[in-house]
Amino acid sequence: MIQVIHRVFSVLDRLGHANALKLKALAEATDIKKTTLSNILRTLVEVGVVKKTDGREYMLGEKLADLARPMFMRDTLVEVAEEHTRQLSEDIQENVVVSILRDGERCSIARASVSRSVEVNSGILVRPDLYETTTGRVLLAFSDEDRLDNIIRAKGLPGKRWDGIGSGFQLRKALRKIRGDGVAYITSGDEEVNSLAV
């Protein structure tokens, strides 16, 4: 079974470096017998990972690109976020964090800090709970209804974690306000720390 997997990756690698190859050329390039290669290709074509052209050539299929797209988009998103996070931090002379919502959790993908004589302990601001952070609230405000419902089922309603919100109606009202304002703002109980997310 492992040998088949190695052969499949060999075929995909070779097709990734060529525009399109006929069976004979692909067999020579991968050192796989034509009958074995034909069976592998038939399966790969059936699942859409490889495409067979009218000229009897094989090339990578769209399904493979679909499988890889989230990884490339994530890498691109991180790259863009890092660049803009650094620039924004320099412009406003404040610490900046860019977060995304992944599987119902807030994940920081970029962070930039500024040097100052007095440093705020950013650990005070790091809370894993979406309801207790400005970034979490903004991410929730711009989530679709299905995602929001899944998060409420998994985490419950905010309650004491956010202004005593105890119903779905109250939560949606608060999220609509954030969406309308385009910003969430929290001041710590001792009024020492301010957190802002847009």
Give an overview in words:
Helix content is 51%, strand content 16%. It has helices at residues 2-17, 23-30, 34-46, 62-92, 134-141, 145-155, 168-181; strands at residues 21-22, 50-52, 57-60, 96-102, 105-112, 184-187, 194-197. The strands form 3 sheets. A 3-stranded antiparallel beta sheet has the order 1-3-2. A hairpin with a 2-residue loop joins strand 4 (96-102) and strand 5. The model is unreliable at 118-127 (pLDDT under 50).
Helix-strand pattern, N to C?
HEHHEEHEEHHHEE
Helix content: 40-55%
Strand content: 15-25%
Count of DSSP helices? 7
Q: Report the average pLDDT across residues.
A: 84
The 3D shape can be described as elongated
Structural key phrases:
198 residues; alpha+beta; three-stranded antiparallel beta sheet; 51% helix; elongated
List the topology elements:
Blueprint: H1 2-17, E1 21-22, H2 23-30, H3 34-46, E2 50-52, E3 57-60, H4 62-92, E4 96-102, E5 105-112, H5 134-141, H6 145-155, H7 168-181, E6 184-187, E7 194-197
Antiparallel strand pairs: 1-3, 2-3, 4-5, 6-7
Helix pairs in contact: 1-3, 5-7
How would you concisely characterize the structure shown here?
The chain is of the alpha+beta class. It has seven helices and seven strands; from the N terminus they run H-E-H-H-E-E-H-E-E-H-H-H-E-E.
